[in-house]
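G., the chain you wanted modeled:
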Amino acid sequence: MRSPMSPVRSSAEHPTKHYQTLKPGSARGEHRHAISRVSRTGRREDRVFARPPDEGMGRMRAWLIRHAESVANVGEATEDPAAISLTDRGRAQAVHLAASISAPPALIVTSAYARTKQTAQPTLERFPGTPHEEWPVHEFTYLPTLHGRLSTVAERRPMVEEYWRRADPRHTDGAGAESFAGLLARAHGVLERIQRCADEPIAVFTHGIFIQAVLWALMTEPVPPTGPEMRLFRAFTQAFRLPNTAVVDLRLDGNGRGSIQGGRIAHLPSGLVTGD
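Predicted structure as tokens:
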């Protein structure tokens, strides 16, 4: 049986990209991945990071959905990360996404940021009986000195690169900034919150780097991050790209393990694919 959010694949679908430690395979029609966990001693421990959907108890399913195309994504200057809105094309992407969901999710989650709420709006309108909650699934905001003055992604890039070169997991760049350690702690907290939900599936409208942080939290040991791990995470985010409105299908088994299907955008016509 096709799931409520498993549209037929088309040539418009962006090919899924996997981080080098993900080893694709398949079982019972479901993509499975072996995850290599790297311990703090440098030892690699390969483990299968999936179970067939009918095995185990306490499974929970969530769709992690990147927001639709925003004005910042197309190079417009912005000053408040929370207030960035969608483009007209982004609004069209959100409509196509909502139309692809054939049955109501148990819960619709957004961040407090405008672009996730605008992306979720057509889905909320399609399923008015589905509850909506705000969770701490917002963007990783680590350069607050730029807030309050207009700047583009290109203008911010040198400061972004310097932040990641520094590779200090506990560094905060002023009031209102989040550290890399804080980002991962937030990702672990959201995973635990998903696991505690009574019903599934949950549709989580969030941001690309936060989805990547959730996946990283699943693939690594839950200990304070180091500088080398921060550099590895940066490499991961650059290798595993998520187009706008990409859907990562996350399934947790209740024992700290789970499976993922990443980056589906079959709901978008080829002319609406952005952010890849």
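Confidence is low (pLDDT under 50) at residues 6-57.

Shout if anything looks off.
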